[in-house]
Amino acid sequence: MSRTSRRDERLSELAGLMANHGVMRLRDAAAQLGVSEITIRRDMAQQNGTNGAVYGFHCLGGYIISAQDGAGGSDYSLEQESDCHAVAKAQACAEAAVLIEEYDTIFIDCGTTMPHLARLVPENKSVTVVCYSLNIAEILSAREDVRLIVLGGVFHPSAASFSGEEGIETLKKLTINKAFISAGGVHDTHGVTCSHFHEVPLKQMAISRAVESYLVVDSSKLGRVRSAAFAQISQFRQVFSV
C-alpha cells in the first residue's frame, strides 16, 4: 500500500472516530489509529484524499475538532484569529493577571486572547478557575495547584467553547471574585459585542456573578461592533487593552 493510500485510510478511520466522539484528544486518536501524534497532524495537513473525500479536521489545544459544526455563518473563526495581534493580547493579559490574588475564584472567557491569561494564573495561590472553552481547560488541566471548573453543554468547534443551561445553572451557584471577559468589539455607543450568540448568556451570567469584571481585548477591537451584544462598557471595572 502506498503512503498516500495509508494516509487516506487513516483519515477515513479518523472520520469514523470523530463521528462517534465529536471531539477527540489528539493523543487518544493517535493511540486508536496506532500512529504518532505527528503522523495525525501531517495527515490533517493534507486532507484532500485521492478518493475525492475532503475532511474538515483541525487541531486546537491538543484536541481534534471538526470545522463543519458550530460556525453557523459567523464572521469569526478561532483558527483564523489565533495569531492575530498575539503580542498585544499577551500584553493585555499580563496586565490583567496582576489582579489575580490568593484564593480567588476567577472566570476566564473563551477566545484567542484568554489562553495568554490562563498561562499567567499565579502558581501555588489556590486559585479556582471557571471556564467554558477547551483551549483554557487544556492549559489549566495540567496545573495541580489550580481547581478547574469546566462548564459543559453543546460544543461549538468554531469557538472551541460550550453552551447550554448546564453551564448557566453552575454559574448561578458560584460567587466569582473576578471575571475576565473577552470581546470582538468595544464601541462607545453600541457597547461590548462578540460574534457568537451562544456565548452571550454565559458572559452575562459570569458578569452578574462576579464581584469585579474586567474586559481584556487587544486594541484592534476598539471601535468595532460585532453581531451579538452582551454588555455595556460601564459594567467593567477596568478595560485592559494594548
From TrEMBL:
<dbReference type="InterPro" id="IPR037171">
    <property type="entry name" value="NagB/RpiA_transferase-like"/>
</dbReference>
<dbReference type="Pfam" id="PF08220">
    <property type="entry name" value="HTH_DeoR"/>
</dbReference>
<keyword id="KW-0238">DNA-binding</keyword>
<feature type="domain" description="HTH deoR-type">
    <location>
        <begin position="7"/>
        <end position="73"/>
    </location>
</feature>
<dbReference type="InterPro" id="IPR018356">
    <property type="entry name" value="Tscrpt_reg_HTH_DeoR_CS"/>
</dbReference>
<dbReference type="InterPro" id="IPR050313">
    <property type="entry name" value="Carb_Metab_HTH_regulators"/>
</dbReference>
<keyword id="KW-0804">Transcription</keyword>
<dbReference type="GO" id="GO:0003677">
    <property type="term" value="F:DNA binding"/>
</dbReference>
<protein>
    <submittedName>
        <fullName>DeoR/GlpR family DNA-binding transcription regulator</fullName>
    </submittedName>
</protein>
<dbReference type="InterPro" id="IPR014036">
    <property type="entry name" value="DeoR-like_C"/>
</dbReference>
<keyword id="KW-0805">Transcription regulation</keyword>
<dbReference type="InterPro" id="IPR001034">
    <property type="entry name" value="DeoR_HTH"/>
</dbReference>
<dbReference type="Pfam" id="PF00455">
    <property type="entry name" value="DeoRC"/>
</dbReference>
